[in-house]
Task: inverse folding
């Protein structure tokens, strides 16, 4: 059996750098791959990284309202919009 | 370069302390209780207000287990996390037991790698292995153990599974053989700095990595132990390393660790199926739904109000205060004391109008004990169910108005139970700014349950519009003062980033154990404050300052607030017991001494007016006397100002 990351590598071909958007702009249930961070307070940035929100990682956007809720591994993390605007990602596969 | 700090490998083997370390929400406390049983002590970590639980385990004779506050990663972010860092830095440790969430393997290993590098004997407990399996994850602990060079034990702490193997591993915990290679500038820094660090529990390599990462705990610890010259030298070395790297050292270190963790995870997760959304996850989604979530929140708050306000503050207080204390215990004690003690002064002090027993103890045990007990139970249920962070999500927008984030909901809701208690829980907030803001708002505009009960009763006796005016004014003041204070206070608002743990059915025994521990705190910490307050009031009365104070405040009460002079004494007594003010006014309302307009003005004033004397002491304990004085100097005149303005506005609009 292949671990999850194998999937990510296959999908790497598809997205272009121009597909990069802040987390706040993805639709609910989108699978996305984190690209980079914008302007965030260092404490917030490191907190996110410790939860596994890191460039190259695949995460899921579970909700956009009232806050942006993402799934990292098996954890759910709620982010305020101001934070979700500064985390840039690309779509891995469009929601069905 | 000074060579005065030549270092033998810092590996204290005596002391027999085992530190339990882990991310929040990984079942660390449950595992702690599994290991130690009931023989635990709670005390403040030296020099902080953070509580640390210690216990002994019979399975490992002579070893003491320390339950450290949950930490997401190093560098530490909050006061609580800093304590964990300090334990690892300076406590003589026999071993470190990391408790990790099996289903979040990357996050767990992120901490494991950092702990392993510290060079302390270490064991990893992969906890909640059942939850990982339920989500289609099959883990191979032995491959993790091989990669990290340390024992890895699968556990299910809630069921006591894996405890025996864990204890055996702890008895002979080895130092991890893990050694990650960092980019050359970092490696150069680490080998050069090794001789500069003072002896610590953790390895100089780990110290160096933390120093490079800008860890504030390590920085202040080093500042206490190194000469300014050595410190400055280390700083220069860090800057040099940073410029050679071209990125921040923390980012470079993180990348190496992540790559390593990636490899470990790929080998350790043997099977992964994408599970279908479970009932639990659907319910979880509903609790944070913009509309459904608010409906659930309303239900939860109503249930909380019913259990604490109606059942606790109504039914139980009625039974305890009116029946047990007022009719049986107090007459009996008063009678005996009057017969046994011949000195009138002592009798007055114990069982008089402002007696230690008749006022202080009766208040603490007959009135507040049932309220806080029901509150602690309800709170424990909310806590263990995983619902609290969801409340933070739903209320974030509201609190962002006041320069806070949703995390403030916890002390604010607790304040509706008991402001004294809530003031203490502000220490869970990450920044000093947030702690101070919440403390001010609690002191000013959050009525506690003792007061709320009487106030709502009085409002019900007038009209719905009276209740609306009261609620509107108090809420308005809360928002306005919060808004202003947030803008006046230096510092920035911290945006909300919060983990939503899975919703779980609370385990009754866990809730009860926690409630018992909190009640012990209440009796040890809060009850003495009520007694001191009573004594103060008694003294003021004995030296005739109290009647004088009441008389002196009468003009303000009559001329500015438009109330009868009798209200002055209700206001002043309210400083001792918040509900006294309300009860005094209630009494006046019943005797036709207050018009509806006067009722509204007076209860708005007392709601804002007084944090009770116990909460004043608690503010002083948590924030210092200067801050407390500042808060009081603001709250008292401000409450009177709002009351007086409201009085004139209501007159102007002809409300009655």
Result:
């Amino acid at each position: 059996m292949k671990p999850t990351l194998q999937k990510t590598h296959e999908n790497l071909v598809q997205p272009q750098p121009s597909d990069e958007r802040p987390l706040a702009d993805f639709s609910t249930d989108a699978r996305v791959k984190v690209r980079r961070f914008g302007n965030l307070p260092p404490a917030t940035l490191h907190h996110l990284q410790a939860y596994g929100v890191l460039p190259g990682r695949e995460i899921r956007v579970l909700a956009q309202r009232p806050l942006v809720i993402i799934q990292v591994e098996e954890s759910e993390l709620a982010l305020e919009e101001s934070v979700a605007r500064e985390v840039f990602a690309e779509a891995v596969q469009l929601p069905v | 370069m000074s060579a005065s700090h030549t270092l033998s490998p810092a590996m204290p083997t005596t002391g027999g302390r085992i530190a339990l370390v882990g991310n929040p929400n990984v079942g660390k406390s449950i595992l702690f209780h599994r290991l130690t049983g009931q023989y635990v002590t709670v005390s403040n970590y030296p020099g902080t207000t953070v509580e640390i639980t210690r216990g002994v385990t019979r399975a490992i004779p002579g070893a003491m287990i320390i339950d450290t506050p949950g930490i997401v990663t190093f560098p530490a972010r909050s006061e609580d996390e800093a304590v964990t860092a300090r334990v690892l830095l300076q406590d003589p440790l026999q071993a470190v037991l990391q408790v990790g969430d099996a289903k979040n393997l990357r996050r767990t290993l992120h901490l494991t790698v950092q702990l392993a590098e510290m060079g302390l004997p270490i064991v990893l407990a992969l906890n909640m292995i059942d939850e990982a399996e339920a989500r289609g994850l099959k883990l191979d602990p032995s491959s993790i153990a091989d990669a990290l060079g340390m024992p890895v034990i699968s556990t299910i702490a809630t069921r006591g599974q894996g405890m025996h193997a864990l204890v055996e591993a702890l008895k002979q915990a080895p130092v991890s053989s893990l050694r990650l290679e960092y980019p050359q500038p970092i490696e150069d820094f680490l080998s050069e700095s090794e001789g500069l660090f003072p002896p610590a529990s953790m390895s100089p390599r780990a110290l160096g990595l933390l120093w490079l990462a800008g860890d504030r705990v390590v920085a202040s610890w080093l500042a206490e132990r190194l000469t300014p010259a050595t410190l400055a030298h280390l700083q220069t070395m860090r800057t040099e390393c940073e410029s050679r790297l071209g990125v921040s050292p923390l980012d470079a270190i993180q990348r190496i660790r992540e790559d390593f963790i990636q490899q470990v995870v790929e080998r350790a997760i043997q099977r992964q199926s994408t599970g279908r959304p479970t009932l639990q996850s659907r319910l979880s989604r509903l609790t944070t739904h913009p509309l459904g979530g608010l409906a659930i929140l309303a239900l939860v708050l109503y249930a909380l109000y019913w259990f604490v306000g109606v059942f606790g503050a109504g039914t139980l207080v009625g039974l305890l205060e009116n029946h047990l204390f007022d009719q049986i215990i107090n007459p009996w004690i008063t009678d005996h004391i009057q017969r046994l003690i011949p000195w009138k002064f002592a009798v007055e002090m114990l069982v008089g109008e402002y007696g230690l027993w008749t006022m202080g103890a009766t208040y603490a045990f007959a009135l507040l004990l049932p309220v806080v007990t029901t509150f602690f139970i309800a709170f424990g249920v909310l806590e263990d169910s995983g619902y609290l962070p969801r409340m933070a999500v739903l209320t974030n927008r509201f609190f962002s108005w006041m320069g806070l984030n949703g995390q403030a909901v916890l002390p604010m809701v607790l304040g509706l139970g008991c402001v004294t208690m809530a003031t203490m829980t502000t220490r869970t907030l990450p920044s000093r700014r947030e702690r101070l803001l919440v403390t001010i708002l609690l002191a000013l505009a959050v009525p506690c349950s003792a007061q709320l009960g009487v106030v709502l009763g009085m409002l019900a006796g007038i009209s719905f519009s009276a209740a609306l005016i009261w609620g509107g004014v108090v809420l308005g003041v809360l928002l306005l003062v919060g808004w202003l204070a947030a803008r006046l206070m230096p510092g920035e608002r911290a945006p909300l980033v919060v983990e939503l743990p899975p919703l779980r059915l609370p385990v009754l025994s866990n809730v009860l154990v926690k409630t018992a521990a909190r009640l012990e705190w209440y009796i040890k910490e809060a009850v003495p404050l009520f007694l001191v307050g009573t004594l103060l009031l008694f003294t003021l009365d004995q030296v005739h300052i109290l009647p004088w104070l009441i008389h002196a405040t009468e003009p303000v009460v009559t001329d500015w607030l438009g109330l009868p002079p009798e209200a002055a004494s209700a206001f002043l007594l309210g400083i001792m017991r918040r509900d006294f003010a309300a009860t005094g006014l209630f009494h006046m309302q019943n005797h036709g001494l207050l018009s509806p307009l006067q009722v509204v003005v007076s209860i708005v004033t007392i709601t804002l007016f007084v944090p009770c004397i116990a909460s004043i002491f608690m503010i002083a304990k948590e924030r210092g006397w200067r801050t407390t004085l500042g808060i009081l100097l603001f709250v008292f005149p401000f409450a009177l100002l709002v009351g007086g303005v409201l009085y004139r506005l209501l007159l102007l609009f002809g409300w009655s």
